[in-house]
């Protein structure tokens, strides 16, 4: 399988090159040249596979430069860290199927992709005898999932900046109590945006970036999208198992558009009609909901909400969808993205019908989130986290009688216990992974939000390709 940039400026590359490249060299995002099709017979033959076996069937259709036995091994190790053998179990409440994606090490759905990406990076680096220093800024969730994905890996070090005292205590501890010597937590005096700006500046110093083998781990890596396609397929198999030929709807709490884009790929891959509707649910940061309503993609003012992992105003994976929307025209994709960078808005009204065919969408307010957590708990005795509550609220709006609807549950409620407590008056039960976390030993470097300080720290601690020769006394 060859991979191309949405902006058309890279020559075709293989899967492993696409993984190591992350962002395409021309500033675009990488996509497979074609989306492989799965026929009914093959699809039905997957019914009894375990999650890792299914992951292999799905992913191997997009990967032809890693031997099958190696890929199986990477997948098996990635999902062995999950606390439940189904990896992504479905539970049923009322007329909804809830797809629990929070059984990984950090209790959020990002583990499903980042456990895989960590092992994949490690495998590819071993093969190329190379090293990688991951540098990223986090507002909370991605940082801990990324750290959990690469902790203890021989050829990788990870530097994660978080804004000092501006992430929740649990989020902070989920990062700083990981004591492996390849993990470097940095608390900066400043905001998340300050951290993000520092990281960006580090990456624009190309000689520095190259000499220290810097890499990113953000949601634009194709391997992350690919890993997420799997649970859409597993849901279709398990919900539809008994009634062949029926369709399924999904509702997806959305921020950077990575998760729902994986659903878009799954829909194109599976037999026609297997996935009917994809419902895009946003919080008050509703740029994508407005796009579906109006055909105009226009950045708004950032709102702080109770579902912080979806507080995003420009969805980093949107360009991938745009590319398909304009029928694979990379020149038009590039022009539109350049226009967006300039004006913070693009007019897609000419394609509005297509957009509405691809997605239904709605935005959900903070108040509705609290109300939904309370109602769902009262009616079903099940505690939703605020992100999942955004989805459940949207599901009620788009549920069609007779069509099963799967709502993606993207985080464990214990990660957001303050909001949950506000809604239902009690704290959600604490899962084993978080028990006593605030008392565990922690390690973290304080730092001013200054480029010089960050570069010096990386220079001192980065993983190097060749160990320096032993010094003679
Ligand atoms: C990242 C995240 C989301 C949003 O997913 P995208 O792929 O960015 O759309 C939703 N919920 C939680 C808990 C997350 O961590």
Q: What features would you describe in this structure?
A:
With 473 residues, this protein is α/β, with parallel strands linked by helices. It has helices spanning 15-21, 40-45, 51-60, 68-79, 110-128, 141-150, 169-176, 192-204, 206-211, 222-240, 258-269, 287-294, 318-325, 330-343, 352-358, 366-380, 386-398, 417-424, 451-461, and strands at residues 3-5, 30-32, 90-93, 96-100, 132-137, 156-163, 183-189, 214-215, 248-253, 275-282, 296-298, 345-347, 360-363, 405-409, 445-448. The chain is built from 19 helices and 15 strands. The longest helix has 19 residues, at 110-128. It is 44% helix and 15% strand. Strand 9, helix 11 (258-269) and strand 10 form a beta-alpha-beta unit. It has a domain at 90-103 and 223-432: Rossmann fold. The structure holds pyridoxal-5'-phosphate (PLP). The site of pyridoxal-5'-phosphate (PLP) has 17 residues, from helix 11.
Could you give a quick summary of the protein structure above?
The protein has 473 residues and is of the alpha/beta class.
Q: In the CATH scheme, what's the topology name of the domain at 90-103 and 223-432?
A: Rossmann fold
* Strand line-up of the largest beta sheet: 3-4-14-9-10-13
Question: Beta-sheet strand percentage?
Answer: 15-25%
Helix content bin: 40-55%
């Amino acid at each position: 399988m060859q991979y191309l940039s949405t902006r058309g400026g890279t020559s075709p590359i293989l899967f492993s090159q696409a993984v190591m490249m992350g962002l395409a060299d021309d500033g675009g995002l990488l996509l497979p040249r074609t989306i492989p099709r799965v026929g009914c017979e093959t699809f039905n033959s997957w019914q009894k596979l375990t999650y890792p076996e299914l992951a292999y069937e799905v992913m191997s259709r997009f990967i032809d430069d890693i031997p099958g036995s190696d890929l199986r091994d990477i997948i098996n190790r990635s999902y062995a860290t999950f606390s439940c053998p189904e990896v992504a179990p479905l539970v049923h409440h009322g007329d909804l199927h809830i797809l629990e994606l929070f059984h990984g090490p950090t209790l959020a759905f990002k583990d499903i992709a980042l456990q895989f990406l960590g092992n994949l990076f490690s495998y590819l680096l071993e093969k190329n005898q190379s090293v990688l220093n991951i540098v990223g800024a986090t507002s909370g969730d991605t940082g801990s999932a990324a750290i959990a994905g690469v902790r203890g890996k021989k050829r990788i070090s990870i530097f994660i900046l978080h804004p000092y005292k501006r992430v929740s205590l649990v989020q902070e501890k989920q990062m700083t109590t990981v004591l492996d010597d390849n993990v470097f937590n940095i608390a900066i005096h400043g905001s998340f945006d300050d951290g993000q700006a520092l990281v960006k500046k580090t990456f624009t110093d190309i000689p520095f970036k190259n000499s220290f083998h810097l890499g990113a781990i953000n949601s634009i890596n194709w391997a992350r999208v690919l890993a997420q396609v799997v649970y859409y397929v597993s849901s279709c198999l398990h919900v539809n198992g008994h009634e062949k030929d029926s369709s399924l709807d999904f509702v997806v709490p959305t921020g950077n558009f990575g998760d729902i884009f994986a659903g878009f790929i799954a829909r194109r891959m599976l037999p026609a009609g297997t996935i009917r509707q994809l419902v895009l649910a946003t919080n008050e940061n509703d740029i994508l909901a407005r796009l579906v309503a109006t055909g105009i993609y226009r950045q708004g003012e950032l709102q702080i909400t109770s579902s912080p992992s979806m507080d995003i105003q420009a969805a980093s994976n949107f360009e991938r969808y745009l590319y398909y929307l304009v029928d694979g025209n990379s020149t038009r994709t590039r022009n539109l993205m350049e226009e967006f960078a300039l004006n913070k808005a693009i007019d897609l009204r000419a394609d509005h019908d297509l957009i509405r065919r691809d997605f239904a969408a709605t935005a959900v307010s903070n108040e509705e989130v609290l109300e939904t957590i309370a109602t769902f708990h009262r009616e079903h005795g099940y505690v939703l986290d605020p992100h999942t509550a955004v989805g459940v609220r949207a599901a009620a709006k788009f549920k069609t009688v007779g069509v099963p609807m799967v709502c993606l549950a993207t985080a464990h409620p214990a990660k957001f216990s303050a909001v949950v407590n506000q809604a239902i008056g009690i704290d959600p039960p604490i899962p084993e992974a978080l028990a006593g976390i605030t008392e565990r030993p922690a390690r973290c470097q304080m730092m001013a939000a200054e480029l010089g300080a960050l570069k010096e720290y990386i220079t001192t601690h980065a993983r190097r390709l060749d160990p320096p020769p032993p010094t003679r006394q």
